[in-house]
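Narrative summary of target 7.
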Amino acid sequence: MNATSATFIATPSEVGQKFERARELVAPDMLEVNRLILEHLQSQVPLIPELARHLIAAGGKRIRPMLTLLAARMCGYRGRRHIGLATAVEFIHTATLLHDDVVDESGLRRGNPTANSVWGNKAPVLVGDFLFSRAFQLMVADGSLQVLRILSEASAVIAEGEVAQLVTSNDTGIGEEDYLRVIRAKTATLFKAACRIGAVVAERPETEERALADYGEALGIAFQLVDDALDYGAERTVLGKEVGDDFRDGKITLPILLAFARGSEAERDFWRRTLEELDQRPGDLERALEILRRRGALRETVERAAAYGERARRCLDIFPAGPARDALSDLVDFCVARAF
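Modeled conformation, tokenized:
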């Protein structure tokens, strides 16, 4: 998606270095999180750790637990509670991935076969439930009703967002506000909660808690906007799944909404046929890509992601300068720069 690269200052290699510096800052804590993940995957039912490890071994940046660790560090926390809570955040995320892949009938996740493509649909759904249960055990062990409220509410909102996306799929008549409401729920909510609990365990003032929540939400929206653009503009090796999966599934994302609004009646008929009726023919994905580029839909989607990224960065201004704040700012660069 280099058509918009001029709007981004850092090069991909520079952004990669920033991400590695952020990860190194919390590397000891992340080792503890990984240890706790493996410990809580143990079960007398062999399929549970086998299937869960399949997804975890596929990689992933662990951005969400990193946010909890970095937020707690920036807020001056020096205890151990953030380790268990970061693990709970990762379990919630992993559970939603298992469920999402079943709903979407996805074949690839991070470049590897999805659990549902290996074991069928039933086992991933049930193991996802197991991971949710493990997450709640970790929340209860933490002992904070406020943390439990934040993460349990986030889990409920994420589920609502997934159902809302299911309802709005194949409907080119939805508005941008509906779309933003969905991605705010299904993606940004966990980013928001992951950051917010970092301030909670550090017992920081409500202003700082709110600032971190706002940072996480804006970052999560930026992350999802880039994902939605990448589905049409990335290589499979970069995306980790089949390019055009959203198109094949009839998902209505911001690039589609922008192209639909700006398109000719013939183009709108094309979107209705391919996305609403799912009547897709050879060459349709290529035509969709051509329309999206010609109408500037991919470029504007990434520009909006960058704007949300800047909004997230401004939320950090109330915190004292330091390595943790720099790392959270660098994660903004990383999340947006994936589009370039």
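The first helix runs from residue 12 to 25.
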